TrEMBL record:
Transmembrane segments: none
Protein's UniProt keywords contain Nucleotide-binding: no
Keywords annotated in UniProt: Membrane, Signal, Transport
Signal peptide positions on this chain: 1-26
Protein name, UniProt field: (wild Malaysian banana) hypothetical protein
Keyword Ligase: no
Domain of life per record: Eukaryota
Lineage: Eukaryota, Viridiplantae, Streptophyta, Embryophyta, Tracheophyta
Residue ranges of domain DOMON in the record: 49-162
Organism: Musa acuminata subsp. malaccensis (Wild banana)
Principal location: membrane
Annotated localization: Membrane
Length: 189
């Protein structure tokens, strides 16, 4: 079945010159098919770490369902979050995922409250529900539904990956290259 993106891009291509194609039609994120027929109305290829973010805002409920996807080995971790107050890691309200030593993908919310956060599960500054994760084709995927407190749709976002999980605790990521560039803004509009 065609995803809504593909259908929209196809209709644009039929009716417009290609120069009018929405830039999202050039994105590679839109070609991805999630398990369980999960479908998101929007996606963006994030500029670092090969990651992408899929989202679907429910304006009446003031929530957004997201999927964050990034390449990873089975022994690493990935994380994505929003920083309500700053464009940096510290203060970010994140969700982390990794393969637990018992063989299950684990995902939970965690507060990045310093440059050496505990990575322990914690409540975030906004509601988070339906948190889960999958490991598919060497990519880790985090799913969650966030409550958009305050009614805004534009947020600072951060995303990250690290190679090591020790005793089921994600360890520090690299502080070079892409790993220190992986932040920006997202508008769930
Ligand atoms: C963001 O700033 C507000 C206002 O200063 C504060 O109440 C809130 O706790 C801060 N949020 C986080 C996640 O630090
Ligand atoms: C693995 O451990 C996590 C965290 O304790 C737990 O939530 C999950 O159910 C466990 N999975 C299995 C297959 O035991």
């Amino acid at each position: 079945m065609a995803t809504p993106f593909k259908l929209l891009c196809f209709l644009f291509a039929l009716t417009s010159s290609t120069s009018l194609l929405p830039s999202s039609c050039a994105q590679t994120c839109s070609g991805y098919t999630f398990s369980d027929n999960k479908v998101f109305s929007s996606c963006t290829d994030l500029p670092h770490l090969g990651a992408s973010l899929y989202y679907d805002r429910d304006a009446s409920a003031n929530t957004v369902s997201v999927a964050f996807k990034a390449p990873q080995t089975s022994t690493g971790w990935v994380a994505w979050g929003l920083n309500p107050n700053a464009t940096k890691m510290v203060g970010s309200q994140a969700i982390v995922a990794f393969l637990h030593s018992n063989g299950s993908m684990m995902a939970y919310p965690t507060q990045l409250d310093s440059y050496a956060p505990s990575m322990a599960p914690a409540a975030l500054s906004f509601p988070v529900n339906d948190v889960s994760a999958e490991y598919v084709n060497k990519e880790m995927i985090i799913f969650a539904t966030l409550g958009l407190v305050g009614g805004g749709t534009k947020f600072n976002q951060v995303w990250q990956e690290g190679s090591t999980v020790l005793n089921d605790v994600p360890k520090a990521h690299s502080t070079r290259g892409d790993n220190i560039k992986s932040l920006g803004t997202i508008d769930f509009q």
